[in-house]
# Entry
Amino acid sequence: MENLEVYIDYIAKVTETIGVLTIFLGSSYSIGKFMFLMRSKNPVSYLELRQSVGKSILLGLEILIAADIMATVVTTPTLKSVFILGLIVLIRTFLSLSLQVELEGKISLAEKQKLNIVFGHSVFKR
# Structure
């Protein structure tokens, strides 16, 4: 059982690394594409750059939330660790929701359902 915890911890660390790399590489690719296409006949607008970088951050945040959940499996569940995980997930969910609204200009049905689960009741009027 102890070996399983070590493997889960390694998997969580790898997942965290993947999340950070997703944000970094996605943002770097978007900025590089923006700079390269600025000189072409069909330049990419600032809005498209912003959306592309935002999508990279959103995906990276989702992966980081998964890594946090995996990391708590290996620790002994104390009230403090559960509270910290809940706070981290709540903050990252709020960041994801804010980015989604910023990128799309509206809240998607999936995000509404996420908020309803977090707060335990309907946050939005139908």
